[in-house]
Amino acid sequence: MKKALIFAAFCLTFAAGAAFSYVHDWHDLDSVHNHVVEAIHEMDRARAANHFDMAGHGVKAVEHLHAAERELGLAVESARRE
């Protein structure tokens, strides 16, 4: 179960990256940003269901998702200014 949840989180991150590659304007970036935020919430629920014990991988996945969320937020701000 734990491996499946971690795999799902990484798949969501990959999907967000793939969606990011097809960006045409800031609305697309904002959509990807929203998907990453949803992935963060899903990962939080998965970690809670597994009593947060995922050999450190859950924490690392959440850190990467938060980094992606921050970068996408900055990208949306930048794209809106252009």
Can you describe this structure in just a few lines?
This protein is mostly helical and 82 residues long. It is 83% helix and 0% strand. The radius of gyration is 14 Å and the shape is elongated.
Tell me about this structure:
By secondary structure, the chain is mostly helical. It has one domain (2-81). 83% of the residues lie in helices and 0% in strands. The chain is built from three helices and no strands. It has helices at 2-20, 26-49, 57-81. Helix 1 runs antiparallel to helix 2, helix 1 (2-20) packs parallel to helix 3 (57-81) and helix 2 (26-49) runs antiparallel to helix 3. The protein is elongated. The model has no long low-confidence stretch (mean pLDDT 78).
Structural class comes to mainly alpha
Roughly what fraction of the amino acids lie in strands? under 5%
Number of domains: 1
SSE pattern: HHH
* Major beta-sheet overview: none
Shape: elongated
| SS summary, helix count | 3
Helical fraction equals over 70%
Low-confidence parts? none
Number of strands: 0
Mean pLDDT: 78
Q: Span from first to last CA?
A: 44 Å
Rg from C-alpha positions?
A: 14 Å
List keywords for this structure.
0% strand; single chain; 82 residues; elongated; mainly alpha; 83% helix; 3 helices
Task: Provide the fold topology.
Blueprint: H1 2-20, H2 26-49, H3 57-81
